[in-house]
Write a structure and sequence with these properties.
By secondary structure, this protein is an alpha/beta fold. It has a four-stranded mixed β-sheet, covered by helices on one side. Strand 7 and strand 8 form a beta hairpin. The protein starts with a strand and ends with a strand. 25% of the residues are buried.
């Protein structure tokens, strides 16, 4: 068994697509119209057949209180692996990304957390 798909709730799918592709560097995989919304996924260009991230519309009534609680408590909605947290922090900050946690080393793990502009906190992580 392996993870095929994960999702983050987003307020606006088009804005999310631009952020996740133009800023974070993911590649669009699927973009299928579904009424007012879309089945919209992105993947790592390093693994185009790997795990997909669904940019899921946040219209369900349970989403807003859930995401608000996570953000208020500083809990990331998901985590992305990077080769160098400090370098990625510098690159993203240079693109205007707002971080809520600067790079932090805890033993063999380094993390940082940023706001994805779509209602979520996202963690980047590297394990030595």
């Amino acid at each position: 068994m392996k993870i095929h798909l994960s999702s983050v709730f987003v307020d606006d799918q088009e804005t999310a697509l631009r952020f996740y592709t133009d800023v974070l560097g993911f590649a669009k995989k699927h973009d299928v119209p579904l009424g007012e919304d879309r089945w919209l996924t992105v993947v790592s260009p390093e693994d185009p057949t790997g795990t997909e991230l669904l940019l899921e519309p946040s219209g369900h009534p349970a989403v807003r209180p859930y995401r608000t609680a996570l953000v208020q408590d500083g809990i990331p909605a998901t985590s992305f692996a990077v080769d160098d947290v400090r370098a990625e922090f510098d690159r993203l900050r240079g693109l205007g990304v707002r971080f809520t946690q600067e790079p932090l080393e805890t033993g063999t793990v380094t993390t940082a957390v940023f706001d994805d502009t779509c209602g979520n906190l996202i963690q980047i992580v590297h394990s030595k």
